[in-house]
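Saturday, quiet lab. Running sequence design on the structure tokens for the scaffold JK sent over.
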């Protein structure tokens, strides 16, 4: 099938490449000339495991192409996927300008039946807005062409996006059109080999399903972080509590890790957008608001511990920071907890030596050159001349470091662990002062 992907970011590029992999002829359109040039010259703009090989293989097979030519994009696909960003606007609502710009483009150039598939995460009612914009663009030219707008939220996880797309848990399709449902069933049939993954529903329920999923996952994290803070006050160990509750199959082990707050391109903005869109229809989503407030507070936890350890001396301290990306296996730093920690250290007068296996370029892009940030090429190099180590992202390579080398390189053996990757008893044996989340401090 001929498919068009509007937006070649984390979602659009992965989705486009995976749809090409199963034999479709996919054209990815993006307004970012730099990104398209890079893709057309053999580069990949993001780090995502397995993506480079997938993109190259399908490009070489002639099934995957990249362009900034919007008209060509609209003419190409019978199915037009919208996978552009929906960042928060000033009040936290989802900013729909990119989604509606694509809708306008589709209306301007389409000359036969199109299925417009909203993959971006958008508030309930957006499909109606997309349809209105397409109709308006057609009307401006005095034309009437048939189309359907479908909601098809994406559930892939950065860091495991290719696998998630190729082997989805479920594919949610929201449409009231039988014609659109039939075509999308064909598009997704290759990803439903062992059983039918497609869950068909009405458009609004599909739009809400995405916010429900991210809202619930964020709620689990904030709940655990709230409990972690209580555990510290009660002198209990949140990791024991986690195992004690995770073993209950009604609760399960996933998304109950205490830490220094969730970040990324989805949870923070989706939680915020859900409460703002509730507000707009006159409903106060108190639980969701609390989830956001707890997370904002949690992102301050690591710095609070650093500040209380060093006191006023923080002004001339250098902190080694391991992990810039908002989670392992990605280079994405959108709303990453590392940013809150670094910015607080800088505001207090300290400086940072940071290392991340993939996100250094992204950090350079965000912060540019500054005297109080050194981006290091290795975890060890980040420790040189530093006064303490902060672990913000639980990359595999940080899980079992050479603690003797850490002690030798740091001016003072102190670790602040925002992901509870180390064992307090081991830290005590090694003579390392150790602060983690929801567990008592170890003072060497
Ligand atoms: N990143 C994730 O893990 C994830 C997962 C599920 C859903 N989502 C949702 O998917 C959407 C896209 O997220 P992302 O992380 O891929 O964003 P992104 O910022 O990585 O990519 C968006 C791309 O859209 C392009 N774009 C903007 N306006 C355009 C236009 N008019 N025409 C063509 N291209 C245009 C941008 O240049 C950019 O390359 C968001 O709504 C997000 O909430 C993201």
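Result came back. Writing it out in full:
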């Amino acid at each position: 099938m001929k498919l068009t992907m509007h937006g070649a970011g984390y979602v659009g590029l992965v989705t486009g490449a995976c749809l090409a992999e199963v034999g479709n002829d996919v054209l990815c359109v993006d307004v970012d000339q730099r990104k398209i040039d890079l893709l057309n010259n053999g580069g990949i703009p993001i780090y995502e495991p397995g993506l480079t090989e997938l993109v190259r293989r399908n490009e070489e097979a002639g099934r995957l192409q990249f362009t900034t030519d919007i008209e060509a994009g609209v003419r190409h696909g019978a199915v037009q996927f919208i996978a552009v960003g929906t960042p928060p606007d000033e009040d936290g609502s989802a900013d729909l300008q990119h989604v509606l710009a694509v809708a306008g483009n589709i209306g301007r150039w389409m000359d036969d039946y199109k299925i417009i598939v909203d993959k971006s995460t958008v508030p309930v009612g957006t499909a109606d807005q997309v349809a209105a914009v397409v109709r308006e663009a057609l009307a401006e030219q005095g034309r009437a062409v048939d189309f359907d707008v479908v909601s098809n939220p994406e559930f892939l996880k950065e860091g495991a996006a290719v696998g998630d797309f190729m082997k989805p848990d479920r594919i949610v399709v929201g449409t009231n059109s039988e014609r659109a449902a039939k075509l999308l069933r064909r598009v997704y049939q290759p990803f439903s080999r062992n059983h039918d993954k497609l869950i068909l529903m009405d458009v609004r329920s599909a739009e809400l399903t995405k916010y429900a999923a991210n809202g619930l996952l964020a709620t689990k994290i904030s709940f655990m972080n709230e409990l972690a803070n209580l555990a510290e006050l009660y002198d209990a160990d949140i990791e024991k509590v986690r195992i004690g509750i995770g073993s209950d199959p009604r609760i399960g082990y996933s998304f109950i890790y205490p830490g220094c707050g969730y970040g990324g391109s989805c949870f923070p903005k989706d939680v915020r957008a859900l409460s703002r869109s509730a507000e707009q229809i006159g409903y106060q989503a108190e639980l969701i608001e609390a989830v956001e407030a707890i997370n904002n507070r949690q992102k301050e936890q690591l710095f609070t511990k650093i500040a209380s350890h060093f006191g006023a001396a923080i002004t001339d301290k250098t902190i080694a920071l391991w992990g810039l990306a908002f989670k392992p296996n990605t280079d994405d730093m959108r709303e990453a907890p590392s940013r809150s920690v670094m910015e607080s250290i800088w505001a207090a007068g300290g400086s940072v030596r940071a290392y991340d296996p993939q996100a250094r370029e992204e950090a350079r892009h965000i912060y540019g050159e500054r005297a109080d940030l050194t981006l290091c090429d290795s975890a060890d190099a980040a420790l040189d001349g530093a006064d303490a180590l902060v672990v913000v992202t639980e990359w595999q390579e940080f899980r079992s470091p050479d603690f003797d080398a850490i002690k030798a390189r740091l001016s003072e053996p102190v670790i602040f662990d925002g992901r509870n990757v180390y064992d307090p008893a081991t830290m005590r044996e090694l003579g390392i002062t150790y602060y983690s989340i929801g567990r008592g401090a170890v003072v060497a």
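Notes for JK: The chain has 18 helices and 14 strands. The first helix runs from residue 10 to 21. Ask whether to fix the surface positions before the next round.
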